[in-house]
Specification:
The complex is a heterodimer of chains A (about 525) and B (about 210).
Chain A lengths: L11 H5 L4 H29 L10 H36 L8 H23 L13 H5 L4 H28 L12 H33 L12 H35 L6 H14 L15 H29 L8 H24 L1 H7 L3 H31 L5 H27 L14 H31 L41 H7 L1
Chain B lengths: L11 H36 L1 H8 L4 H26 L3 H31 L12 H34 L10 H31 L2
Helix pairs in contact in B: 1-2, 1-5, 1-6, 2-5, 2-6, 3-4, 3-6, 4-5, 5-6
The chains are: A mainly alpha (about 525), B mainly alpha (about 210).
Chain lengths: ~525, ~210
């Protein structure tokens, strides 16, 4: 058998000291998967508690710690690194025809930093957890909370530097290491999306790092930065926190958009509609995304004119997002569409992202937001974006590139079954939460009035279905590593450079450095004939 | 040329371009790391104008101004070192790097003296401070900004000395002019941050009201 990146070394040391971006990607994917199921377990306990109206399973305090653990783990240890650091690490050099990222040692270092931060957060969890919510709002987090705030903050602080280093590596790699002929407007949209994500990672994450450091300083030394009792200002914290955490939403969803833009043209056998607009829309979302943070603070007492401006800008960010949805739809028009598992996930992504995005406009409307703030409507909205959008796309990507990563095909029937189970499980879990929110059920309580029972039972039943859907791929993908049919270099007849090298790729990626002479997504019928 | 090309690059030119861009991106992220402190200063000035003005009159303008002169001169030496190495004058480059490091150490010494005075003057924020609430915020930002800046400068001094030592041998990878240029970017960044710290900490409050 040919030597590939998987057979290049079998010892533990060969993995833990590797500089190969493909092996580092697998290290990331393993760690990310573990954190996903830990965060998911916390969510399972939350939905179990909410299956009945009274708070009978866990105490109010434990419940606070559960939703904080769920939020912190899912945001910083799963969603943010999932597509960029995991799949992006594997794919970015392959897609641009490079031998590796620009700084391979830095890439390995960023994985170690990620794991170190993850261990700090898990340690805080096992010592008793944190009860502040993932947003660490002051002055509760600095003055009142008796949980492991500082250790968790430091963990998130550390994980942030891993994101920054990955972002830096991607930016430099895309600028300086593209194959001959691969101009900016021939780049796959996945590369564009991860490039824009990297800009956000590099420019927003350090703001969070410093803000969390200041929270730690205030909590330890009792000096006033954010706590009004000490002479600080809590709104200052909210401004700084959301300056990072709103762009962080785009860190989570832009790479997912990149995934959809690879999968949909491939299974519609059509060039992506409006390629340049897709690329500009990605950049537009990244830029405008930096200017909308105040829409998390409409009821905080910030100036009315600030709220008006933030509301307007939040509506503006919907325009490039809508361009993308329209263009994916137009790509399907008159295509020769097939429905393997990655396509089911990608189509699910487009629909659920649209619902999540449109309900975001409800929340961007000043008057309506007063009613909906801190209700389950908000919870449903961001889960449609982050789970319906990002996690669906992540799973679609894992299936789409699984043959390239593992050299094996996954079992197609099981793949489709899991995708459908997840789609229905997701909607059953979160659609009732829109209704609960509109009826006024507040988030972050472990008990609720009996009127809300029916919708909560539906939601918890959906969560059980969703859990089955998430466990299925874990089982059949593991099975396929040993028993799956061997994959050829290009099982989907796709156009990207990553498909022009064997599966799994050799350690240096390409036997001959590729030269690009074609436009991206060249799925026209003549193109196919030439390729076969 | 003595610089080695790593296997992921196809030429030294590509490697240098990557290193230079990498440093620029790193500096952008560094700037944003300082960002919340600058934003805090602006926010505080807006919400506690009188307290900020009163508190900033307690800073030591003489030492602050002296340090500004010292740091600007160090950047001049650093720029000369980069140009000298590019022109192949390694001895001059090393002398300039030593001068850069000495000026950096002088800055830290003056800064240390200033912090000692601040501490003795009870300018540290916290319970029992004589400063008003906004004034405490000012001094918190003062210590955070100058402290973070000093950490960056200390790293810069170690970096510059490492280059000066390694350049005794022309086989060292650090004797490659492209690498020193990248290190120079970092040094100038630390200098530029100070150029913004000096007015907001020492000057603006004195001019107000």
């Amino acid at each position: 058998m040919e030597r590939n990146y998987l057979t290049a070394g079998y010892s533990l040391k060969s993995w833990l000291t590797t500089r190969d971006h493909k092996r580092i990607a697998l290290l990331y994917l393993a760690a990310i998967t573990a954190f996903f199921f830990i965060g998911g377990a916390a969510a399972a306990l939350i939905r179990l508690e909410l299956a009945t109206a009274p708070g009978d399973l866990v105490s109010a305090d434990t419940y606070n710690r559960l939703f904080t653990a769920h939020g912190v783990i899912m945001v910083w240890l799963f969603l943010i690194p999932s597509i960029p650091s995991g799949l992006g690490n594997f794919l970015m050099p392959l897609m641009i025809g490079a031998r590796d990222l620009a700084f391979p040692r830095l890439n390995l270092l960023s994985w170690y930093i990620y794991v170190a931060g993850g261990i700090m957060i898990l340690t805080a969890l096992f010592l008793g957890g944190v009860d502040t919510g993932w947003t660490f709002y002051t002055p509760y987090s600095t003055l009142f909370s008796n949980s492991h705030v500082v250790l968790t903050l430091l963990g998130v602080f550390v994980v942030g530097f891993s994101s920054i280093l990955t972002g830096l590596n991607f930016i430099v790699t895309v600028h300086t290491m593209r194959a001959p002929g691969l101009t900016w407007f021939r780049l796959p949209l996945f590369v564009w999306a991860n490039y824009a994500t990297s800009l956000i990672l590099v420019l927003a994450t350090p703001v969070l790092a410093m803000t969390l450091l200041l929270v730690g300083i205030e909590r330890i030394f009792q000096v006033g930065i954010f706590d009004p009792a000490l002479g600080g200002d809590p709104l200052l914290f909210q401004h700084l926190f959301w300056f990072y955490s709103h762009p962080a939403v785009y860190i989570m969803v832009l790479p997912a958009m990149g995934v959809a833009s690879e999968i949909i043209p491939c299974f519609a056998r059509k060039r992506v509609f409006g390629y340049r607009f897709m690329a500009y829309a990605i950049l537009g979302i990244a830029v405008i995304g930096f200017l909308v943070w105040g829409h998390h603070m409409f009821v905080s007492g910030q100036a009315m004119y600030a709220s008006l401006a933030f509301s307007l800008l939040s509506f503006l960010v919907a325009i490039p997002s809508a361009i993308k949805v329209f263009n994916w739809t137009a790509t399907l028009y008159k295509g020769s569409i097939t429905f393997p598992a990655p396509m089911l996930y990608a189509l699910g992504f487009v629909g659920l992202f649209t619902i999540g995005g449109l309900t975001g406009l409800y929340l961007a409307s000043l008057a309506l937001d007063v009613h909906l703030t801190d209700t389950y409507f908000v919870v449903a909205h961001f889960h449609y974006i982050m789970v319906g959008g990002s996690v669906m796309a992540y799973l679609g990507a894992v299936h789409f590139w699984w043959p390239k990563i593992s050299g094996r095909l996954y079992p197609e029937t099981w793949g489709r079954v899991a995708a459908v189970v997840i789609f229905f499980g997701f909607n059953l879990t979160f659609f009732p939460q829109y209704l609960l929110g509109a009826q006024g059920m507040p988030r972050r309580y472990h008990a609720y009035p009996p009127e809300f029972t029916l919708l909560n039972v539906l939601s918890s039943a959906g969560a059980a279905l969703l859990a089955v859907g998430y466990l299925l791929p874990l089982a059949y993908l593991a099975w396929s590593v040993f028993r799956g049919q061997r994959a050829t270099g290009n099982p989907w007849r796709a156009t990207g450079l990553e498909w022009q090298t064997p599966s799994p790729p050799p350690p240096d990626n390409f036997a001959e450095p590729p030269v690009v002479t074609r436009e991206p997504y060249d799925y026209s019928p003549t193109g196919e004939e030439i390729r076969q | 040329m003595n610089g080695q090309v790593s296997p992921q690059f196809s030429s030294l030119g590509q490697q240098n371009a990557a290193a230079t861009l990498g440093m620029w991106v790193f500096l952008a992220t560094e700037l944003m790391f300082f960002g919340p402190l600058f934003f805090g200063d602006w926010y505080g000035r807006l919400h506690f104008p009188l307290e900020f003005a009163a508190a900033s009159r307690h800073t030591d303008m003489v030492l602050g101004t002296a340090n500004t002169a010292i740091l600007l001169t160090s950047s001049f030496a650093m720029a000369n070192a980069v140009e000298a190495l590019a022109a192949g004058r390694r001895t001059t480059a090393r002398a300039m790097l030593v001068a850069t490091a000495v000026l950096g150490v002088a800055f830290l010494a003056v800064k240390g003296l200033e912090w000692r005075h601040d501490w003795q003057g009870h300018l540290f924020p916290g319970r029992g401070s004589f400063l008003a609430n906004g004034g405490q915020l000012f001094f918190l930002l003062y210590f955070a900004l100058t402290g973070l800046h000093a950490v960056h400068l200390a790293i810069g001094i170690v970096l510059v000395l490492a280059f000066a030592l390694a350049m005794r041998h022309d086989t060292s990878a650090l004797a490659e002019p492209g690498r020193l240029r990248v290190a120079g970017l970092y040094w100038h960044f630390v200098d530029v941050v100070w150029i913004f710290l000096y007015p907001i900490l020492y000057l603006v409050g004195r001019a107000a009201g």
